[in-house]
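Intended use. Records like the one below are meant for learning the mapping from a protein sequence to its folded structure. Do not use them to infer anything beyond what is encoded.
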Amino acid sequence: MFKSLISINDLSTEEIRKIMELAAKVKARPQEVRDALEGHIFGFIFEKPSTRTWVSFQAGIYSMGGGAIYLGPEDIKLGIREEVRDVARVLSRYLSGVVMRTFSHWTITEFQDYFEKPVINGLSDLEHPCQALADYMTLYEKIPADKDPVLAFVGDGNNVLHSLMLVAAKLGAKIHYATPKKYEPKPKLLALARQIAKKTGAVIEGFSDPAEAVKDADAVYTDVWVSMGEEAMRQKKLKDFKGMQVNKELLKNAKKDALVMHCLPAHRGEEITNDVMESKNCVVFDEAENRLHIQKAILLYLFNQGAIQ
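Structure written out for the chain above:
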């Protein structure tokens, strides 16, 4: 039975740890997996522009001997030119797997129902699982998991926060978040994360005051306030998120030399200041690099588990 990665909740705690361990091995010894995906061709179905997701997945696939075909929004017009289920049935005859980057999470789940191979969520409005796995890989590279670092997220209760909460819940980690009113994480995702946390001992705490959320945090994370597809809401969101900027003043509440994290792209001067982005404690480009290694590990886990020991 094939396995897909649509949500962090598709993975057990043991699988998350295995993927992160595999990513560390791949990062250290990439030559050992250079032929691991030989004969596999993957499709990228992207409704949104992409830098890191597209390039890291494609570079990872090519570096392991596989091939990739990019299908942008004008190539298939998924659900417009042709029904999602029909496209899925056709592409399952051609491809080993598909990476999807969509506006609606439903598009991915609908596609998965009819695609007879693994589907990977490269981003949807509900979750960003590959990003969250790379984030925790980066966090634990800098601060080992046994030191129990506290991650504080400040900003929009969006897809990135949803996946970060689920990873934290699965790993028994500590995560704080601060969001403006009406921009909290979705209740169903928050309830799921807290349900898992009860079993693992994870701590998930929400605040309205960002200073409270980042108090004594080991790492402070933010994301854009205006996501792709929300351009019409720009002025309203900029007003609603006033006081949520990650800047030097806010970081005074965190631990000394706390890490600064961001999934990118960053809107410098909005959710994060330029001086914080350029500070020595900012690890955003390490996160971006680790997207490559995590995504290679995900592919290896789904398609060739025995590629590296």
